[in-house]
Specification:
The chain has four helices and 14 strands. The protein is of the alpha+beta class.
Length: about 190
């Protein structure tokens, strides 16, 4: 009888310990992420009471154009074309981030699970200067960055190149249609407008 009571107490103790351990555990889910006016595919996140945590390695490609340099306890995220502008540093060990544009240190909510860092969705806005909105009804996370992606930058460069080529063609057309006179004494050709 005494052994069965000890067994029951042991099982209850194990149950309460394991229940308290698993109560803090995050659950797996898949959400859709919308970035800069386009929908991306579904991404695996960890949920804590309907609050998503994004894998920092998954998040980086969604924040178009960011590169990173990491050491054992922190990562520096920066725009590849302008590494000194708006660089963000996340210190995973001390759980805070700051940027070169805003020196204020912000505490963040981050978990280290599966040998990866998982960042709370609200901390994306704080650390990466983005507008972020989590729609719990549709399970869509909307992330709008405040900087141009490399694709956007390339489009702007291509557009400027096309405009320059068109202007050069117009100048050449005007130049070709302008009559020239020859200075008989110097053998110079000069143009004049009529």
């Amino acid at each position: 009888m005494m052994n069965s009571k000890k067994c029951v107490y042991s099982y209850l103790l194990i149950y309460f310990i394991s229940a308290s351990l698993f109560a803090d555990e995050l659950s797996e889910a898949f959400i859709e992420i919308k970035t800069n006016e386009r929908y991306d595919s579904f991404f695996r996140v960890l949920l804590d009471d309907e609050t998503p945590y994004l894998n920092i390695s998954t998040l980086l490609p969604l924040l178009y154009g960011l590169d990173r340099k990491c050491d054992s306890e922190r990562c520096h995220y920066f725009i590849a074309l302008r590494p000194n502008d708006g660089q963000t540093t996340i210190n995973f060990k001390e759980k805070h981030c700051n940027s070169t544009t805003n020196k204020k240190v912000h505490n963040i909510n981050v978990h280290y699970i599966e040998e990866q860092y998982w960042l709370h969705w609200k901390d994306i806005a704080i650390c990466f200067n983005a507008n972020v909105y989590w729609d719990t009804d549709s399970y869509i996370l909307n992330i709008q960055t405040q900087y141009l992606s490399p694709t956007d930058i390339q489009k702007a460069i291509d557009r400027a190149r096309r405009i320059s080529i068109e202007k050069a063609k117009q100048i050449k057309k005007i130049s070709d249609s302008t009559p020239y006179i020859t200075d008989e004494y110097n053998n110079d050709t000069k143009s004049f407008s009529t």
